[in-house]
Amino acid sequence: MNDNVRSRAVSDDRREDIVLPFAVEPLSTRGRVVRLGPAIDAILKRHAYPSPVARIVGEAAALTVLLGSALKIEGSFQLQTKTNGPLNMLIVDFDAPSNLRALARFDADKIAAASEQARSGDLLGDGHLAFTVDPGAGLSRYQGVIPLDGQGLEAAAHQYFQRSEQIPTLVRLAVGEVVTPDAVHWRAGGLMAQYLPDSPERRRQADLDPGDAPEGAPRDIVLEDDAWTEARALVGTVEDHELIDPTLSSERLLYRLFHERGVRVFTQGDLRDACRCSRERIEAMLRRFSSEERRDMVGDDGKIGVTCEFCSTKRVFDPAEFES
Fold first, then answer.
1. Residue 56 needs a FRET pair 20 to 30 A away by CA distance; which of 50, 94, 97, 199 works?
2. How far apart are CA 173 and CA 119, in angstroms?
3. In the chain, what are the domains?
């Protein structure tokens, strides 16, 4: 550990809706842990998703925050799936540094007919998963797309980092319901660890199969670094209930995993359920339609009603205000 880093007691502050960056410097490992409570509970209950759908939306929200919170600017990060499974579309938006919203579309009959033990990969089916980074300020967007071939979001994230970022990465996601005397609340959690050594030699990765080498050529074998082997083994011990336990603080969780090596935590970020929709945005959208198109939107009450699919907020407009 760096001698300039002060040691202190582990905090048992059990705050929810946070993302906490950390580093295990002896193992050249950095990462983040996210704990979602009231924010994901509000998102899932607002839409009254069936339990299998709610669990996948919770996983997607935790994964989106793990990835999107790495943004150094106030840009946006989006996770989106498009597949042929019962849950055929999933969108999670993270507006850095704190705002989260999510939306799922699914075939209710197929979801109801699915087994309670159905894997998330079975419900997602085949298609693709896209990660989109929009840094804003007129800068170019970046998008990474990977196939979804019946695997869950954890496996898809590992595939993304292996093929697109080529950074040794381990992701753990968990979603569950916590029973209190008053109600049942949804919670989601996630932990991501990445091997980021300073030495270029230690950052070498084996070529992806089949690579560019001619058939029959000897394969380049790169042994996994002992530090990453140890870090990966430690992260692999975390259990689902630890990631969503409201009585376990994020710092205490990290201490359980890495106390023998020492873990350094950084400033945590607060998270909240917040939609980017507004009356002004919707009004601007409606003005882009022709008068005839807007007349087709008028309801029986003589008004134009628009409901946001993310936050379910309904806004009503007088058609006359667009004709003046």
1. 97
2. 14
3. 18-273 (3.55.30.10), 279-323 (3.90.1280.10)
